[in-house]
Design brief:
Elements lengths: L4 E5 L7 E8 L2 E6 L4 H11 L20 H6 L5 E5 L3 E5 L4 E6 L3 E7 L6 H14 L7 H9 L6 H27 L5 E3 L23 E2 L6 E2 L2 E5 L4 E3 L1 H7 L8 E5 L3 H14 L7 H7 L11 E5 L2
Parallel strand pairs: 8-13
Antiparallel strand pairs: 1-6, 2-5, 2-7, 3-4, 3-6, 5-14, 9-10, 11-12, 11-13
């Protein structure tokens, strides 16, 4: 589209991404590197305080368009580049970007992850959960997919194992707490089932749709969720425990795609793929919310080969 602009944006999953301009007019990119994010935040608080949230993910997606000269005036460093057809732009984790299309063009972009992204993935999703920022994909589904893929390489399985164990421990703890709170109704959702579960009235409760979003934190619930079919409310297990204390549990139901023995089997499968490997210390630290080392910062581009 002619003169399309992109608001200031940073990927909340901490993923790098790449954009390729196939043909058409140039695109102008402005970027703030990750190591200058605090200065960018300070400038945005002065210019547009109404859009800045008091959370880790402080700038919601697609909400702020600020002229670059104004940011520079407030002490924020910027990089600028012009992307021409046949060129790639690579955006590293933590960098903020904004774009302006100089005319009609055709481009495409894709996000990708390297193995070491798993070192900080759990922390990124916890930040999204605490900031009520909806993820693009389910972290639970990704971890289970890696754990049950027999062709996965050993290093990836080793880094995934502590994440899987942590997920299973949380799942067991929250399910036990909900039963102690009086929850008595349970229903298993088949992943390959085409029809909606009984009494489900809204499309997002379809079993084949993995993007069941918690009404409290907006996280994607893949393994399990607690729903109230009468009031059309859905919670992840953590916030079901938090929100339903001393509530009548009669109208609430636990929907789950995996029971605990199956989750335990996934753990065994992952350990079976790499029986002689232990999880690296950096992964264990990430799971226990110890901040990992800073990712690469800034934006760069290269010509197509």
């Amino acid at each position: 589209m002619l003169y399309t602009t992109g608001c200031w944006y940073r990927d909340p999953h901490c993923l790098p991404w790449i954009e390729y301009l196939h043909t058409g007019a140039n695109k102008i990119w402005y970027s703030v590197p990750a190591h200058s994010s605090n200065r960018f935040r300070a400038a945005m608080k002065e210019i547009m305080p109404q859009v800045c949230k008091d959370s880790v993910i402080w700038l919601p997606s697609d909400c702020a368009m600020v002229p670059p000269p104004q940011l520079v005036e407030h002490g924020c460093p910027l990089s600028r580049l012009v992307q021409e057809k046949g060129q790639f732009v690579v955006i590293f984790p933590g960098a903020f970007t904004s774009t302006i299309a100089c005319g009609y063009s055709v481009s495409e972009s894709v996000y990708f992850a390297t193995q070491d992204w798993l070192l900080q993935a759990a922390e990124c999703f916890e930040h999204m959960k605490a900031s009520c920022e909806p993820p693009t994909f389910s972290f639970e589904k990704l971890i289970l997919g890696i754990a049950t893929e027999h062709r996965e390489n050993l290093d990836t399985c080793r880094w995934t194992l502590p994440l899987l164990r942590k997920m299973c421990e949380n799942e067991q703890r929250y399910r036990t707490q909900l039963v102690e709170m009086g929850l008595k109704t349970f229903e298993r959702l088949r992943l390959d089932e085409a029809a909606e579960p009984k009494k489900a009235k809204r499309p997002r409760l379809r079993p084949e749709d993995s993007n069941h979003e918690c009404d409290f934190c907006r996280i994607s619930c893949h393994v399990s969720m607690v729903v109230n079919m009468q009031d059309d409310i859905l919670y992840c297990l953590e916030h079901a425990v938090h929100c339903l204390q001393r509530k009548n549990m009669k109208s609430w139901k636990l929907l789950y795609t995996y029971d605990m023995p199956i989750l335990s089997l996934a753990d065994v499968t992952c350990r079976g793929v790499a029986p002689h490997l232990s999880a690296p210390a950096s992964v264990t630290q990430s799971v226990t919310a110890v901040a990992p080392s800073a990712p690469p910062a800034g934006a760069a581009y290269c010509s197509a080969p």
